# Entry
Amino acid sequence: MTRVVVTVMPREGVLDPQGQAVQGALGHLGFDGVDHVRVGKRIELTVHGPEPEAEARRMCEELLANPLIEDFTVTVEGG
Amino acid sequence: MTRVVVTVMPREGVLDPQGQAVQGALGHLGFDGVDHVRVGKRIELTVHGPEPEAEARRMCEELLANPLIEDFTVTVEGG
# Structure
């Protein structure tokens, strides 16, 4: 079994309303020196089987990421 | 200016309904060898100022994470 970390972020150039909301809220709290905020997902999962990284990539393509608007990375922990 | 990555994950032992939903959906798609799925956030931001890591930690404490149910990490890119 292998622990895998998937990150899914909005693609460069795609509007990120959640990032904009966080940036605005930080400004209201007095954190002025903050910009280029992007918000995405981090998914940790245990994959059983011989090819955990390839399997996780297939999961991203089929479910975890929307390729039109999101990029993903797959990292095998300790690998 | 410094690029900072914040990760916010559900605490160990806290129910993670989003993780459970993803795990169930993966099972329905035929990805059977998957468990312990946890879903959290990855936030990338640019921080201006002399102490970007400490500033990002304050942002987590005040806005980005809920300390009752979430743990966060702050990583300075290239640092």
User: Anything to note?
Assistant: Chain B touches chain A at residues 3, 7-9, 19, 22-23, 25-26, 29, 31, 33-49, 55, 58-59, 62-64 (CB under 8 Å). Chain B has one domain: 2-76. The first strand of chain B starts at residue 2 and ends at 10.
